[in-house]
Amino acid sequence: xxxxxxxxxxxxxxxxxxxxxxxxxxxxxxxxxxxxxxxxxxxxxxxxxxxxxxxxxxxxxxxxxxxxxxxxxxxxxxxxxxxxxxxxxxxxxxxxxxxxxxxxxxxxxxxxxxxxxxxxxxxxxxxxxxxxxxxxxxxxxxxxxxxxxxxxxxxxxxxxxxxxxxxxxxxxxxxxxxxxxxxxxxxxxxxxxxxxxxxxxxxxxxxxxxxxxxxxxxxxxxxxxxxxxxxxxxxxxxxxxxxxxxxxxxxxxxxxxxxxxxxxxxxxxxxxxxxxxxxxxxxxxxxxxxxxxxxxxxxxxxxxxxxxxxxxxxxxxxxxxxxxxxxxxxxxxxxxxxxxxxxxxxxxxxxxxxxxxxxxxxxxxxxxxxxxxxxxxxxxxxxxxxxxxxxxxxxxxxxxxxxxxxxxxxx
Length: 411
Fold this sequence. Notes:
Blueprint: H1 10-24, H2 31-60, H3 64-67, H4 73-80, H5 85-97, H6 102-109, H7 115-130, H8 140-148, H9 151-165, H10 167-179, E1 182-187, E2 193-198, H11 201-214, H12 226-243, E3 259-260, H13 263-266, E4 276-277, H14 285-291, E5 296-297, E6 300-302, E7 308-311, E8 315-316, H15 320-330, E9 345-349, E10 364-368, H16 369-376, E11 381-384, E12 390-393
Antiparallel strand pairs: 1-2, 3-4, 5-8, 6-7, 9-10, 11-12
Helix pairs in contact: 2-5, 4-5, 5-7, 7-9, 9-10, 11-12
């Protein structure tokens, strides 16, 4: 006899029909009317969430998920009900804890608190029940604050209460979160790098504090979005660690970006190939020229069969004494309006040394990484006047109506 799959319950069918009719109906448009209607719609949605949570807890008590090939009830709910893992777990927890939080459940049903508040109360009740303290859970204090606090503030209050009742369990959870730290770095076909990771609360706060301090706008005309500034801050933080020998040695050497390029590429000759950058795809001649402004260079001569015939001694283009004098003179990025300090800036040759520009103070200026990039790849021009002032020229403005490189002084 063939197996007949179960049909949707009649009451669920009625609910779906009522929801469809409601969605097709024209809602009222005025502000005062919407404030009333939206609050009531939200209460109805919370009631449905409550019922769904009861059903989710009942489902979690069966092994039906196993017959569908899922690894857990939450895994099945996540995929088949189109929910995130955290949301699915919250529903199961609420359904399981309803007997321990009757007053909170009634307050949610009447619209005094929302389902998000109820989920936090249920999560706290579950944590206390699973702890070794053997303390009975009392929802009174939590419910009182849930009526007063927004969901964000109430989340912190619940965590404080959890620590009061079970400090050891709270510490154990923190340690587990640290062990769960993860970061993956992958490179796409176009060379774009994708970061995916998860951090514990303290680790995340540490990273955000460091990046936010570097993610403020860099002078007048900085129209970068906040997300872009955070990404630039991450690159800047890494570059600072590389430039200041703050990282442990690998293979007897401090880690640095390693670029392999030909002289033709460095001179930006037509027909020259791109340069090879370790752990990345080939980069442009303009990027090489920027990186070469102040770097350690090793000359390697190859024969016609690309065999190494000579390796020259490494040397840095800006000597330490010159860099120190440059730091004292400029005190930071010289781009008008930028406040990046000298330690976060790079030595830029106004006339590049590959174009016979001298490596002396008169031909050097400090630029932060962003503004250094703007002068090279961004094709801005930077001008140092005879009295030492710095002027910047945007790419669309050409004073002489002819192509010019970004490193040529005009004053």
